Amino acid sequence: MPKTKAQNEIIREQSKEKILYAALKAFSRYGYHGTTMRMIAVQAKISKGLIYNYFLNKKEIMEFLLEQRIAQIKKIFNQEIVGTPEERINFAIREFCDNIVKNKGVIRLLISIFLQPGVRLAFNQEKKFEHKLLKDFDAYFEDVRRKLDHSQKKWTKETITIMFYGLVMTYLLDEDELKFRTASRELFNLVFK
Q1: Residue 22: pLDDT above 90?
Q2: Burial of 20 by CB count in 10 Å (0-12 exposed, 13-18 middle, 19+ buried)?
Q3: Buried b vs exposed e over 167-188: b needs ≥16 C-beta within 10 Å?
Q4: What is the pTM of this model?
Q5: Which sign does the torsion angle of CA 185, 164, 91, 146 carry?
């Protein structure tokens, strides 16, 4: 019996996810420049030709991975924060921490890829991804400040962003979730109260 359009779409999405996951693993193991489309195919246990049905080259795969991550972060940033100031700050802390904890593997892989020589430069020639991410991160914290009716500006958006980047990097290195959540709460309270 032939597959339905919906079944074919599910299979297509599963194949694409398999390719993306394999690419992340290959990029982190062999380096972005050392990874070939063949290596990604082997890692994904599919034919090399199948990858080209989804992506033109490894750069397009990497760009898709970055766009995907930025879209996930934007989804969190665009949530409405309601309730009392205390409830709103607790919501912001929980959402921030939950996202980092849930996606720590992907975040760690993307950071390791971006730390490879020449990779950051190759993908940021126009500051396309980094600028987007920093802009969204800055906008998120400015929005949290506004929604919490926090008019006193003790910190610049850039300083807040850098502090939270440091917090995320510390968590990715030591993986102590309780320490990360506690430090996040303390940082939110320091910045927004």
Answers
A1: yes
A2: buried
A3: bbeebbeeeeeeebbebbbebb
A4: 0.68
A5: positive
